[in-house]
Amino acid sequence: MSDNKIVKVNGKALVITGDDIDTDRIIPARFLKEITFANLGQYPFYDERFNEDASLKPHPFNESNRQDAKILFVNKNFGCGSSREHAPQSLKRWGINAIVGESFAEIFASNCITLGIPAVAVSSKDIKDLQKLALENADLVWSVDLKSATISTFGFTVTLIMPEHHKQTLQQGLWDSTALLLNNLDKVRQLHDQLPYTKNYGG
Amino acid sequence: MAVGTLYDKIWDQHVVCRLPTGQYQLFIGLHLIHEVTSPQACDMLRERNLGVLFPGRTIATVDHIIPTTDQARPYRDTQAEAMAQALYDNTSEFNIRFFGEGSPEQGIVHVMGPELGMVHPGMTVACGDSHTSTHGAFGTLAFGIGTTQVGDVLATQCLSMDPLMVRKVQIDGELKPGVFAKDVILHVIRKLGVKGGIGYAYEYCGSTIEAMSMEARMTICNMSIEGGARIGYVNPDETTFAYLEGRPHAPRGTAWKRALQHWNTVRSSDDAIYDDQCKINAGDIAPHVTWGINPGQSVSIDESLPDPSSLPDGERQTAQLAYQHMKLTPGQSMNGTKIDVVFVGSCTNSRIEDLRAAADVAKGHKVASHVRAIVVPGSRQVANQSEKEGLHEIFLDAGFEWREPGCSMCLAMNPDRLNGDEICASTSNRNFIGRQGSPHGRTLLMSPQMAAAAAVSGHVTDIRKHCV
Ligand code: SF4
């Protein structure tokens, strides 16, 4: 599992501003019709990036000098709405390896953990500073460091907020939840046998 | 943290152990799957050479992509057909019960599970769908999960979870005429905010909730996620038990009696401690309609739309975007807004009670000539029951289309969709940009009664004027 360890994500940043960016905006439902996640990297924010004739609209994900960005700066309640894992999958497959925001919707955040994407929070003031700097200079390289709990670029550092155990989960490479859950199947079977409804309430 | 709530009791009973990550391994009593979020999970099982631990604890149905005109396979849409086939193949390979197209049980996953009596008080329920919170109406911990987690439940019947805090949302008093469960939950979301529920489970209680039918409670719990709360629940009571009794998957005979004994223990204690509480007076709630691009952007039918400059920073930007997208103006009222389409359906409002209510309003009227109106029952059972009661004839006579069950225009993964910038009076749960299939489409969320009234008048209208 050692290559699962995620301690640092380095790269350029993309800025998406606005609260309550929902998963229908991140990936419209019509792109959920593929039965694998393989092609999803083409579609993040599709309707905001492309006109009906497939020509480009101005959008952060379309900027030529940010195509290699690895980190996304967002505001409050990012990823609200649907539980579709397609949303973080599409961002990850586009190239995003870390998301920094003021807050995240619950299911979106938990999907990020299962995919090994740090979704980390910073204060309202800090996100404004990060977004401003990143917008002014596309070439700035940022470092999201889970160990020191900071996000920094040349000469500028802010503290990130993430539940301690989420940080540990990523740093220790334990984000493969399936592997962890599989370790305890004996206990699972025991609990199953004790629950009233699995035995038709003893009737 | 909360102590002695229904949440705590069910959580404690279902924790298998603590994981090295600090999260908890939680046993899932009922797992529901559908065609959109399960194929990749089944691929994962095959890749890792894993089986399904308790195949009997997962039930599958097809709902999101199913056409509502002709449901016979193969579907004309080849991608939809591939999804349906994948679900069919996966459920046969892994020995999972599948209520597919044409089966008498098929329906929207959150309509089907409860009406078959599968959802019992005290259970944990998971589904790769955020509106799984619906099932909390039965006194369960029910929540949406991602696809990797669908794989986790299949392989281990468990999830890796963090506990939530619990907020008591107490609603007391009698609802005014013309005000329904949908108005209540839109009011709650507006009051507590679309992000207010992050980190919380919502316990809905108080005399208003106690007086509600199971259908109404499901409408409320369904939209918890729109307020940011992954879980919403109601303590089970006689209404819950009466709904369950006699349903195909409810216990019978002596098992029923023992089940009742157990179910009576799964409720929040009188002296339970909550992480937060809020009180709402039912009498303050008027018929609601959304004007914006998230379910928190709603107003009472007779209220004027907010001025963005009066809103706090974050909300202001969303409001500006909303006005731009919706082509509405601050200060105007929603009453009288001309509509193009009416959609009565979705896991929020497509149960028998919802269709009866909509039919009641439509009866003897005609859908306005410029309006396209469709009614999509939530399940085959709802469709059959409606047809038995003649509701379909009321709708057809009034000029509504009467469709086959499915998610339909709630998210437009099937052929039902808005065109261009059409504006739709919808009983669904999300008014997000593009949600109903057109990037420029506009959605107004409202109750089935208000939607039916909008259909016949051709514009958004105050249902209370119809009541008198
Ligand atoms: S009706 Fe809408 S919200 Fe409900 S499960 Fe279907 S798509 Fe999701």
End-to-end separation of chain B in angstroms reads 47 Å
Name the pair of protein chains with the most residues at their interface, and give those residue counts.
A-B, 66 and 89 residues
Topology of chain A as a string of helices (H) and strands (E): EEHHEHEHEHEEEHHH
- Report strand order across the widest sheet of chain A: 1-6-7-8
Instruction: Note the overall shape of chain A.
Output: globular
Question: In terms of structural class, how would the helical and strand content of chain B be classed?
Answer: alpha/beta
Helix content of chain B: 25-40%
What is the structural class of chain A?
alpha/beta
Distance between the termini of chain A: 45 Å
Query: What's the alpha carbon Rg of chain A, rounded to whole Å?
Result: 19 Å
Count of alpha and pi helical runs of chain B:
16
Strand content of chain A: 5-15%
Brief overview:
By secondary structure, chain A is of the alpha/beta class. Helix content of chain A is 31%, strand content 14%. The longest helix of chain A has 13 residues, at 124-136.
